[in-house]
Fold these 4 entries.
Entry 1:
Amino acid sequence: MTLKEALTKSNEEMATLRATLEEKAKSSGLNAYIGFESLGEGVPILIKDNIQVTGWSVTAGSKILQGYIAPYNATVIDNLKSKGMMAFGRANMDEFAMGSTTESSFYGATLNPHGNNRVPGGSSGGSAAAVAGGIAIAALGSDTGGSIRQPAAYCGVVGMKPTYGRVSRFGLGAYASSLDQIGPIAQNVEDAAILYDAIKGHDDKDSTSADFEIEDIANHLNSDVKLTIAVIDSYVAQADADIQKAFAYTVAKLEDAGHTIVHKELSNTKYDIATYYVLATAEAATNLARYDGVRYGKRAASKNTEELFYNTRSEGFGDEVKRRIMLGNFVLSSGYYDAYYVKAQKVRHLIRDEFNAIFEEADLILSPVAPAVAPKVGASQDPLEMYKSDMYTIAINLAGLPAISLPVASNDEGMPVGLQLIAKAFNEKTLFNGAMSMEKVVNYNNN
Ligand code: GLN
């Protein structure tokens, strides 16, 4: 059942659906859900474990937050309620949204429903796997450097990252505050637009929230638009054969449908990963300083205050989170601050300016989401290799742009390939129209 269909059903039918989803989720073996709480009546939307829901456990997939209960709703949760939807179930995720595979969760790894012992991607892997596996109608994830779009691509579903500032971050557990956005993961583009409409909008409780409203999109979607779509050939050439093949197929289909393809260059892409991992870790180190054993969740045994901080953080955080805290504190430390942090901020501006220059001449950019299909469970042991797999998603967060990932093809093993469309800031309308058109012409679900 799609989200659009579910919204026409009664509360009784939705209550039955919730029971069915729970039962199916438990027997699926995917480990996509880590809880089955439910918040009132309405169409059930699965919620990533870093979004606050009153009275629910919220742990961001971490041991350090075990036992912590959210005292309030994130704004997106209140917004859902006003649109006939409601929070149902907790989605598994990489610890503190740091990762690309959903293997770093305290609750164990989530599996990709397409089988072959593959990861679902991350960090919103539970959300994407559940939607793809038919055990959630739609879900909320968060995207700091690709965590909605990449798992959506790996699992063959639609994932959308809104423009920075379009969706309130109030009640989202902070990873890197200047990059984080909450967004929808859904079965198709229209459902993603419905969910995006529900959660978007200005919020006084988030000082980075854009203070102007824009019209709802889902009711006015138009898949017959003719757009100018830019492709970055040198960018695409770095992906593997599966992705390149799917990319060429999609470009041909878009041209057949009457869109104009233009070829552009981005000269700073080689700096994307370094820039992101300097800025994201700097912000993460700062944001995660609050987990000290005093205010939230777990408290380790200790004899004095210093030991309390030390033991709580040593026992509570996993390896990847510790690695990022160390890296973040390093780039912020005196002597290195100018060389790394300040320089990365400057490069971030250059990256954004380059995207904006392309949007002078094109409505959208078409790009891969990841350089390959989902890797096997256990194959991503080298952190640097994992960071490199974020090469196509992180620049969009650095530039604050909206983007949507949708499935276009499968490789020979049946693993999905997703591609993303990227739009100018606050131009979600063109983004969704382009995605509707692309969804129609690639015809993924019937291939
Ligand atoms: N894989 C990226 C990281 O680990 C992105 C994560 C995200 O978007 N939350 O930082």
Entry 2:
Amino acid sequence: MARPILVANWKSYPNSLFEAKSLLNQLARQSRLYKKFNFSIAPPLVYFESVARSGFALASQDMEMTDILKSFGTKFVIVGHSDRRAKGETEEIINRKVKIALRAGIIPLLCIGELFSDRDGEHFEFLRSQLRLALAGVKNSKIIVAYEPVWAIGKSAKGAISPDELSQTVIFIKKVLSDILGRKIANQISVLYGGSVEPANAEALMRDTNIRGFLVGHASLDAKKFKTIAESML
Ligand code: 13P
């Protein structure tokens, strides 16, 4: 069985280089735990060198400055995160970035997710359209899809996803991937979840659904919480 995938998305934190290094030191003390994962950290660019020195794999928060990312050995790149979509990143730009990443040999972590909580299933069509547009002209299995419902993202998110809801959505995503890319390629694509993954919900979301791992935002800035999340995924 492949190792679970775990991405620490630091967004624009920690607030200082000192704090970033201290967090990295705390993570390094648990390096045996993180070796059990396909683990990477997506720091702000200013902390790239510190993360690279720590020995942990790097993920970029955006597909930019391809040569620089490659020179750091960047393994993954987050594409289409809701923070960037909110700033005007279009599906066309996302599609282009997916292709640039693939050409550069960096694995795109394609984020999709509906804006509002919806229990009538209307978000399915929205997700289908996001996938279709982002993957137009792409026939490649070296992609990871991260389902991040926007309403569930952030410390002050109003709702949390249930394992049942997540399972249904992941089945749907896999079906759409199969329609777009063909079953053989789609079967090789992992689907991750992101959106208020916390010590309290990580175990159930991992155990009771068909996801392959997490993209963790705010809880990844707290080494203790992050360790609990990681442990509950194994
Ligand atoms: P939170 O874990 O803070 O909700 O962030 C999720 C996310 O956006 C990861 O990319």
Entry 3:
Amino acid sequence: MKRKLLSVLLTGALAASMFVGCGTSTETTDTGAAGGDAATTTEGGSTAGGGTKVGVAMPTKDLQRWNQDGANMQSELEAAGYEVDLQYASNDVQTQVSQIENMINSGCDVLVVAAIEASSLGEAMDMAAEANIPVIAYDRLIMNTDAVSYYATFDNYKVGTVQGEYIEKELDLKNAKADGKKYTMEITAGDPGDNNAGFFYQGAIDVLQPYMDDGVIEVKSGQTEFSEVATAQWATETAQSRMENILSSYYADGTNLDICLCSNDSTALGVENALAANYKGDYPIVTGQDCDIENTKNMIAGKQSMSVFKDTRTLASQVVKMVGQILNGEEVDVNDTETYDNGNKVVESYLCDPVFADANNYKELLIDSGYYTEDQLK
Ligand code: BGC
């Protein structure tokens, strides 16, 4: 596999404009976009070459957001005139490695990868580096390799901060000690194989730790370390069964659970299911992230307090722009050159802004913006 020369790309630019919207997808799986029509105008892909192929490796179709991410990436890349090879790997690391290797062998010019497991793509990344194929880590950083060229994501630490500050504000924690108030909390974090999970956890814990230290917040299970509260593969069922155990061990005697700090919506859903089945006390604050459809419905129904909206259209547009800039030899748009050290190097990153969402603003954020239709949330 040989990366096409820049001159060929530039000569192809004119031809590309004739092919806009006609890129061929070699996708082998149905993207099954769960969201609304998410295509937005692309910036920066204006000189895409006909026949220039972008491989997009997504983790799984099981979680709603990756379907949206994949569908957005495909439509935006195609609109910019690229061929797209979009693959989902059923959360199986070896499948994702093979898919990336196939993308390299079949002549992809750039790879966009949302890793299942941050540290398990070493060989595939070596192969990309040997073939001189730039790699953009999509949403999740790829660890321990020099081969990742750029990283585009949402500000992951800020996601956690937004969750922590919501809890702080809702319960007026700043005045709780003076008011003699005490709260109970349980924490559900994400997949330890996903580099983002630690950022989400830490962002929230940095806000809440002082209240845990001074006894305003008590975690009855005693499980506070990331390793104790992590949820393998972000699985709803795993989060649910862990919370069922916690509820029956520490809250079955009528003790109220006031706060369920959940890093994202798939884990929040598990916690909400556990609360519905096993909990009789006052309903707690439950945090989340992603504004998945089920969770947005739960916000409307009062079963989830908030979520953090990460508009996957924004991320897709940014990544398509970066793809264009890389291929055109232009300066690549980044806004963070310090935060994301993958063990081998600090990866230049573009961080999109996550936005607070709850039952009061979901209409404006999700429906008015065309992310979902009203019917999808019924
Ligand atoms: C993403 C979250 C998502 C989680 C589970 C993380 O890497 O940033 O948006 O909820 O994976 O898919």
Entry 4:
Amino acid sequence: MYDYLIVGAGLFGAVFAREAADAGKRVLVIDKRPHIAGNVYTEDVEGIHVHRYGAHIFHTNDSTVWGYVTRFATFNRFTNSPVANYKGELYSLPFNMYTFNKMWGVVTPEQAAAKIAEQRREIVGEPKNLEEQAISLVGRDIYEKLIKGYTEKQWGRDCRDLPAFIIKRLPVRLTFDNNYFNALYQGIPVGGYTKLAENLLDGIEVRLSCDYFADKAALDALADRVVYTGPIDAYFDYKLGTLEYRSVRFETELLDMPNFQGNAAVNYTDRETPWTRIIEHKWFEFGKDAQGNDLPKTVISREFSSEWKPGDEPYYPVNDAKNGALYQQYRGLADREEKVVFGGRLGEYKYYDMDQVIAAALRCCGKELG
Ligand code: FAD
Ligand code: UDP
């Protein structure tokens, strides 16, 4: 008999499992995938840690979370600085003086600010959607070349039908600073994210390729309480309807060349290129293997964003009004499941980054474990 059955060996499940085990609880972790680490899973290909479910860069301003995660991994000095490719023109991201200089030829912050001010005049009042928010932040030229196409590919919706907050994640700076994140702490765990998850789950029983719903009654009978980190609508057999997600398809290739694009991430911001971005995984670790040798080959992944349908991997919750309302109904059902705690990106249907998911798991432990 276990105190906790934890469904999902992603970051939420692994952090909860670690804390529960350290508090003296007996825990069993299951995952339907054949591996741990959930979406942050990395696998070794020719010495390169390939991010199987998309590029993951750890970044946080939360010193408690940073203190916690660095107990389980050493982080390298990687700083995310993606490049945008618009029909062969290259721009620096996020939007900063390098971008403004390339776009408009402006040289000083004052000139850049004036250009943005002139272009944002078309927006009057509070921005009502992503398009208006983007123009109000950086003006129409940048919106047209670097935002519109990418966003519409990423979300499969017109920018006028998307909420403004999505674009507020991106910094806009009047300095020469290509660091994509406004974060105090940033990096990639040395040895890959799978190693980080292994360290979190050290000494904890894990059953892989084990789908909770294939044997729910028997699995529930093994434990006093359940921590469920899968999709909340799947838990209730989609009885109120399916929550929408965006899914991503990756086409990954091993190339017999040392350097394909010279950067970890290149975003393709035009509408015509079918992929949103290309990741070259070796640059997350500076092109070196564990011994510090240059790697002769490279692995790239093209990312294609797609509408989710049952059976696909759900990646991004679509946090619009319709899905928010449906989630609230599921939340009501979840609150009545006395034995079950719902957590994580899918369990809470929230656009969580890794640091936020760790913080949420630690909060949940605080409530559950006392
Ligand atoms: P998950 O990692 O999804 O884990 C849930 C686990 O539950 C999965 O392993 C799943 O197999 C398992 N499960 C589900 N249903 C069942 C079932 N029925 N039975 C058994 N097991 C089940 N965050 C950042 O901070 N930085 C980034 O750069 C970043 N990039 C991202 C890029 C992409 C493409 C995506 C999709 C996300 C990105 N994130 C990033 C967010 C990050 O992936 C999440 O915050 C984090 O992985 C969520 O952890 P989780 O444990 O909640 O969910
Ligand atoms: N975005 C964009 N152009 C880019 C990169 C991002 O327009 O080159 C927009 C897009 O709408 C995206 C949002 O900014 O959804 C947030 O970007 P971020 O990289 O944070 O998205 P993530 O992939 O992490 O969800």
